[in-house]
Design brief:
- This protein has 329 residues and is α+β, with helices and mostly antiparallel strands.
- Helices cover 21% and strands 25% of the residues.
- The strands form two sheets. Strands 1, 2, 3, 4, 7, 8, 9, 10 and 11 form a nine-stranded mixed beta sheet that branches.
- A hairpin with a 2-residue loop joins strand 5 and strand 6.
- Helix 1 packs across helix 2 and helix 3 crosses helix 4.
Length: 329
């Protein structure tokens, strides 16, 4: 767990484009080589691009990149910017004499967070996608109010980008990156404790544990206004050699982590989408090895969600949603 980030997976780079005035941004996840990929959508109000091809029954097996973006449906332009960057370096699926970069994308709704969305004729997201591609790096990257998490909110505190990683007993690395814009809450009641607390490593999101005893208020329904749309979107990646069907199962297990980190999750107004990928650098072994990988997919997703809220800062706009750190330090 060298960095405790998605970039602990060899051959994976992450780049952000952040606009605090707009109150939105883009995050690009770039693979050195095409990666076996799948994904699953469990929210009731999703938004995505090229997500149908991730179904295990579909022909295309690999992707060149994933994109997470704010901007609701306007943000879907971001994948075009990442495609432009990939095409410029000769990446993409060979179709005759042409190359087509495969870049599935998920978006979150951040249009009502107080940022200036008066961008004129064309949205800025294609250019932001290209900027995120150019910013992609294999080392450390910031969390919180950056990239696709710039304008993210939750029912109680400011949301943001979170990431976490783990290693199996067989030496496979698995890591998650989430943009937390949930309709529900990542914390218990109005206090500082995270639903993900049982899975925390060290003090990656404060080391506070769980409150004792639990009260009815801790699990009471807390969600954004009923006319708002929200979502938690992200990716789960491993260096194991998986089939597309196994990658799909990994995305489902990651949704289990979402449900352990956010209450409630997968609401009608959520667009909860998690992409999954396997770089194939290390043979997997037996079914027990895959089961452990699935187990850790749940845990790193839950941890990443808590980190996204823990690391976030409020937007510099009037009446911005407070961050966890504004209240609890």
């Amino acid at each position: 767990m060298a960095l405790n980030l998605l970039t602990d997976i060899e051959g994976v780079a992450v780049g952000h484009a952040t606009d605090l005035v707009l109150g939105s941004g883009v995050t690009a996840i770039i693979f050195d080589a095409p990666a076996i990929a799948s994904g699953s959508v469990l929210g009731g109000a999703p938004g995505g691009r090229d997500t149908a091809l991730l179904d295990p029954a579909m022909t295309v097996q690999t992707v060149d990149a994933f994109v997470l973006s704010g901007g609701s449906a306007f943000g879907l332009d971001a994948a075009g910017g990442v495609q432009a960057g990939l095409r410029g370096i000769g990446r993409g699926l060979q179709v005759g004499e042409a190359r087509v970069p495969i870049v599935p994308q998920a978006i979150l709704m951040d249009l009502l967070n107080g940022g200036n969305k008066d961008w004129g004729l064309h949205s800025p997201y294609r250019d932001m996608g290209y900027d995120a591609f150019n910013a992609a790096d294999k080392g450390p990257f910031p969390l919180g109010t950056v990239g696709a998490g710039t304008g993210a909110t939750t029912a109680t505190f400011k949301g943001g980008i979170g990431s976490a990683s783990a290693t199996t007993s067989a030496g496979h690395t698995i890591a998650a990156l989430l943009a937390v814009n949930a309709m529900g809450s990542a914390t218990l009641g109005d206090g500082p404790h995270f639903w993900s607390a049982p899975f925390e490593k060290g003090v990656e999101f404060g080391g506070l544990g769980l409150p004792q005893p639990f009260t009815e208020s801790h699990s009471a329904l807390r969600m954004k206004g009923v006319n708002l749309k929200a979502t938690t979107i992200g990716v789960i990646v491993t260096d194991a050699l998986l089939t597309k069907a196994q990658a799909h199962r990994l995305s489902i297990m990651a949704h289990d982590g979402l449900a352990r980190a956010v209450l409630p999750a997968h609401l009608p107004g959520d667009g909860d989408t998690i992409f999954s990928a396997a770089t194939g650098a290390k043979p997997l072994g037996d079914m027990a090895a895959f089961a452990e990988l699935c187990h850790l997919a749940t845990l790193v997703t839950a941890r990443a969600i808590a980190r996204g809220v823990y690391e976030a800062a409020s937007l510099p706009v009037q009446n911005a949603q407070p961050a966890w750190r504004d209240r609890f330090g």
